[in-house]
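>> received
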Amino acid sequence: MKELGDINSATWDFIREHASARVKDLAFKSDKYPDVDFMFALEQIEGRQKAAQKLPYWASVDGIVYPPHISMEQCSSEATARYKASLVSRLLTDLHSMVDLTGGFGVDFSYLAQSFDSATYVEQQAHLCRNAIHNFKCLQLDHTHVVCTDGVEYLRQISPVNLIFLDPARRDNHGARVFSIEDCSPNVLDIEKTLLSKADFVIVKLSPMLDWHDAVRKLKHTIEVHIISVGNECKELLLVMSAKNTKTLEIHCVNDEVDFVYTEAEVVDSSWKKVDMVSYLYEPNSSIMKAGCFDVLSKRFPITAVGKNSHLYVSDSVVEEFPGRKFVIETITTMNKKELRKALVGISKANITVRNFPMDVATLRKRLKIKDGGDVYIFATTNNDGGHILYVTKKLS
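>> returned
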């Protein structure tokens, strides 16, 4: 592993001068720049270009060192890191000290650390620690400390702090992805008691693929669940734990600037009713879908579920505050051939979604003879009577 101190000025100059160039084009020009460490330079140019989209603030700071491609793909985005920082500011009144036990590339740490008087980054891989020291200096995080050691060993020896953050590794010894808490490293179940004895609050970042209900059953001191989506794509699952705070469990369904919050006490069995006159259709955002709080939606808003397992809702007047996509219903049709021809007249392209429907999108698209795209959105689902219906809609701006 090359030391940062070994990178010469010619290489850094090359990185700055070619910051926006195509990496594939540069790869064939190494002979023209004999003094440049080309492998390092191309890695940094590619990393900075990816950061411009994912980590715009980091990308604007000169001198940041980026990790290999796969680490850039796996690291937190600026949006999710900022959300964690805002979460901590809400949770804690005392922001004296924090520890990140699984430092990694350091994106989450860099945003969390800004709120604290003292912040410690812990990572057992020496090259990541060296990069972190360099990058935190570039980011002017002068109050931070980098410790190169095993996070669990460090946990056992530290004095109590206000916050512990950890993002357990979700790959096994062979590099395969794992999702359950027990398979991640470190196993939070094994160190839960120690974590809670060492911090006022513990935030654990887990795979968005994980069943959060199961996680909460296992980690019984969880007081908040945060399902975080960006651009309606579920990115992260956070559990907030505390032995000192025993409030009712809150579930936060976050999508960009929208935070839909509910408690377990609000989850009830709703009765589904047939609705004849409807004008608007609603599709919950991805965090709501992950949470599965469909009964809460029916209770919180003047909407009615299309069917018990459809996860689509309708209303006769628009509900602007609904946490998801909103559509104007143009027509509703069954799968009857005559009805379909009438409902789809003039439609050659449409975006198709199926929910609790006996065909997949490709099969239905072939059946309807409609290409993908356009401004028409067709939702295929099953109503409470067991009927298969299509909602032909347009997106509400």
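>> The chain has a mean pLDDT of 90.
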